[in-house]
């Protein structure tokens, strides 16, 4: 099987590429600039917004793993790069024989204000009326997922949408999930609640399994480790790596502050996320989430427990 990976130079992408190679698959990486990969990885250099040769990237490709997305910058730029780039890529794919796609979506697509004490794949995602209250990344990923699902239905592709929780490992801690850092002080929101994480190598296993999926139709699957690691404990681990002093902040108090600030100051884009209720909820709302649907659909189980993953991560920086 030959797999085309977009964003293969990134943190998740480089792990996906290596895992596919270990499984004996052929890999082609599409990215704006070449990067260091094993010699047997094909590199296809292209810009999703401007290149005219995107169809060539799909030559002899069985499945697309689409990881590319902008994460920083002005909201309009993030949306344009992520959504319009995806549109051009998928329209090019439609002119080829490739019919399988795995899309990296995100937990950020959920409408967190509508969630109760749990989140599942059936819960409501952001629409255009609620997107305006979210950050650019959440808006872009929501629009990207909707676009991909629409095109997959139209072209009768096999589509697997994976919505990972915050991915961590090897120097990437996802510290924004803990709370706002103010100088040396690191606020820890909802300190006793379980934190929403997936270790990168566990996430990669889900992407590799999805790339090998051949049955028809659409699957939407959350990717999260089944762990009971509290935000307070994880903040202590991050503290060892990044420094700072932990300060607990009850979730209800943090959300009340965000709602009060929004009421008094309006929904200005200049406000930090901490003072925007929907963004605050998206990062810190205490919910439970199960990977049962992923387990049933793809036979996935996390290869590494949290403690095993922590040993692997910290040993590489010892």
Task: Walk me through what this model shows.
This protein is of the alpha/beta class and 318 residues long. The protein has one domain: NAD(P)-binding Rossmann-like Domain (Rossmann fold, 3-Layer(aba) Sandwich). The protein has 10 helices and 14 strands. The strands form 4 sheets. Strands 3-2-1-4-5-7-12 form a 7-stranded parallel beta sheet, with helices on both faces. The protein has a 3-stranded mixed beta sheet with strand order 9-10-13. Helix 1 (11-22) links the parallel strand 1 and strand 2 (26-31). Helix 1 (11-22) packs across helix 5 (200-211) and helix 2 runs parallel beside helix 4. The radius of gyration is 20 Å and the shape is globular. The chain starts with a strand and ends with a helix. The model has no long low-confidence stretch (mean pLDDT 93).
Q: What is the gist of this entry?
A:
With 318 residues, this protein is α/β, with parallel strands linked by helices. It has helices at residues 11-22, 75-93, 128-131, 136-155, 200-211, 231-242, 251-265, 277-284, 292-298, 306-315, and strands at residues 2-6, 26-31, 42-45, 63-66, 100-104, 118-119, 158-164, 166-168, 181-182, 185-189, 197-199, 218-223, 245-249, 288-289. Helix 2 (75-93) packs parallel to helix 4.
Number of helices: 10
Q: Order of strands across the widest beta sheet?
A: 3-2-1-4-5-7-12
* Total number of beta strands: 14
| CATH T-level fold name | Rossmann fold
Number of spatially distinct domains: 1
H/E series: EHEEEHEEHHEEEEEHEHEHHEHH
| Helical content (DSSP H or I, runs of 4+) | 25-40%
Chain-averaged pLDDT:
93
Q: Low-confidence stretches at least 5 residues in length (pLDDT < 50)?
A: none
In percent terms, what proportion of residues is strand? 15-25%
Structural category: alpha/beta
CATH superfamily: NAD(P)-binding Rossmann-like Domain
């Amino acid at each position: 099987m030959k797999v085309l990976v977009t964003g293969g130079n990134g943190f998740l992408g480089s792990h996906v590429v290596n895992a596919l190679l270990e499984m004996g698959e052929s890999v082609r990486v599409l990215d704006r600039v070449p990067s260091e990969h094993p010699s047997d990885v094909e590199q296809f250099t292209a810009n999703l917004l401007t290149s005219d040769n995107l169809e060539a990237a799909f030559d002899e490709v069985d499945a697309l793993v689409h990881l590319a997305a902008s994460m920083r910058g002005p909201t309009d730029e993030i949306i344009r790069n992520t959504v319009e780039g995806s549109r051009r890529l998928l329209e090019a794919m439609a002119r080829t024989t490739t019919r399988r796609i795995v899309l990296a979506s995100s937990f950020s697509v959920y409408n967190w204000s509508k969630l109760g004490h749990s989140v599942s794949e059936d819960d409501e995602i952001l629409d255009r009326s609620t997107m305006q209250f979210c950050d650019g990344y959440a808006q872009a990923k929501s629009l990207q997922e909707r676009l991909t699902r629409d095109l997959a239905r139209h072209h009768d592709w096999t589509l697997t949408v994976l919505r990972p929780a915050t991915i961590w490992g090897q120097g990437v801690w996802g510290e924004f999930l803990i709370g706002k850092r103010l100088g040396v002080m690191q606020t820890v929101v909802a300190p006793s609640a379980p934190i929403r994480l997936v270790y990168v190598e566990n996430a990669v296993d889900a992407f590799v399994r999805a790339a090998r999926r051949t049955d028809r139709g659409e699957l939407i699957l959350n990717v999260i480790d089944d762990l009971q690691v509290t935000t307070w404990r994880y903040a202590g681990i991050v503290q060892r790596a990044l420094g700072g002093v932990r300060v607990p902040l009850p979730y209800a108090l943090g959300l009340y502050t965000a709602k009060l600030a929004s009421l008094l100051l309006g929904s200005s884009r200049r406000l930090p996320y901490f003072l925007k209720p929907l963004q605050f909820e998206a990062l810190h709302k205490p919910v439970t989430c199960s990977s049962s649907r992923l387990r049933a659909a793809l036979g996935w189980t996390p290869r590494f427990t949290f403690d095993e993953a922590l040993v692997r991560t910290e040993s590489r920086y010892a």
